[in-house]
Every structure is written in structure tokens, then in C-alpha cells.
């Protein structure tokens, strides 16, 4: 399948059931499955280009994490946390009928991946962490928190593109056409005309509540999970990233899965896999897993 096929899975949270929706590419009977999980304000359609490149050999599944895209919004915003997201992904694995997956996570999606891969008996076979790790820079988190959860209404796509370029310049996209593609996938129409972001504004509340103490507590837990990861791991870092520092990436190489580190030149937070060279890094890493099987 060179086109995305939609699917959905029923998940359970503290406030009741909710539906997480996804798209998948490739042969639905292929036992080799790559799950791609997006960043905080994004959707699973971020990975369309990557999925098209990989789906001849791999079944690529791209969920909209709850509260984003076509997935439900939670009744209680307190549920927007990594534990709930990881639980939802376990429901996804069961719905797909697979016992092993490869995982690629950008930013928040990488934190979900660490939460899954760091568990005993984890189904995660190979892990790609895209510009994320246990140690995050408070200033960058505060920068993101300053705009997440806002619900501006854009008169048209071009107006939304202008804002996206301003707040997400780290994506490192190469021209306005790419920015249009990356922007259109995270917009939804509003009644009366125009567009707004395709997420529940309540996802921003936890970000705005962060302080140094909460970041430190989260980091301690994240390192515990990270140190328990045993699967082969690829760590990608944007050369200009303000979220994953050079020092944090170097420390990650000395601990846990001791990942292979690749720095993406000219990019900040976070690489978007629009560039064929970025896609090739993932393709090679997954191919190594197929060869070893």
C-alpha cells in the first residue's frame, strides 16, 4: 500500500474510554512493524514521506496520540501524560496483532518510546530516538510551553505557515512548499471559516506548569527507564537543537543502550524526515535489524 489506510483502537484511561486513530502503510500482514510517534503538537501524518519510502519492506503505523489529529480529546486533561500514551500504544500493539515492533519517536514520541522500551519484556525490538533523551533543557521546554495550547484562528493556510515557520524553525525544512506540507497536516477547519491547530488546547497545561523541580523529577524517572533499555538504539540529534544538548547526547552514549549517535547538520528541534538523507538513516538502521533476524 503506497497510500495511508486509516484505523482506530479503543483505549482506556482514568476518565473512561477514548479512541486513538492511526494510519498505516504497507502490507497489513507484514510481521515487521515500525510505529512512528510524533511530537507534542504534531500528528502521525508527519511521517508520510518516511512511510512511503519504507513501506515496501515494513508495515509503518503512524498514530495520532490522544488529544491530537483525528484522535479523541480526553475528558480530563490531567491524563495527557506519558503513562497514558504508553498504555494507548500497548492497546495499539494488541489491535495490530503483533508481539514485536520497531519504534521511531520524535520528541514526545521518543519519550513514549523510552517508556515502552525500558519495561521488562518490552515488545520494542529496535528504537530510534529523534532529538530527545532523558535530560531536557528547561529553557527549551518553557519556549515550547509559551505557544502550546494557544488556539489561534488563521484566515488561510499561508497565514498558518508564517506562524509555523516562526515557532518551529528548528525543523530545518528546505522551502515554503515543505512548510506548507508540514503545516497543513496539523490544521483543522473551524466553523465560520479559517483554520486552527488540530489538537486539544489542554495539552499545553502540563508544559506551562513545569519548573526546575518538576523537570528534575521527570529526568530522574526518564534516566531509570533509559538505563533499562537493551534493544539496539539510534539517537538522532539536530545540530542546532535547544532541547537535547550536546552534553546530554554524549551522556546517553555512555549509558543504557549506548546508542549510535548521528547529528543532523543545519537542523534544530527536530528533524522531520522530509530530507532523503534523514530517511536513509532510519532505513539503514531498520535494514540492519532485518539482516540480523
Total number of domains: 1
Point out poorly predicted stretches.
none
Q: Please give the count of helices.
A: 10
Going by CATH, the architecture would be: 3-Layer(aba) Sandwich
Share of residues in helices: 25-40%
Structural class: alpha/beta
What's the number of extended β-strand segments? 10
Compact description:
By secondary structure, the protein is an alpha/beta fold. It is built from 10 helices and 10 strands. It is globular and about 55 Å long.
Describe what this molecule looks like in 3D:
37% of the residues lie in helices and 20% in strands. It is of the alpha/beta class and 293 residues long. The chain has a single domain (5-149, 199-292), classed as Alpha/Beta hydrolase fold, catalytic domain (Rossmann fold). An 8-stranded mixed sheet has the order 1-2-4-3-5-6-9-10, sandwiched between helices. Strand 1 (5-13) and strand 2 (16-25) form a beta hairpin. The radius of gyration is 18 Å and the shape is globular. The model has no long low-confidence stretch (mean pLDDT 95).
Please supply descriptive tags for the structure shown above.
293 residues; 10 helices; Rossmann fold; two-stranded antiparallel ribbon; eight-stranded mixed beta sheet; alpha/beta
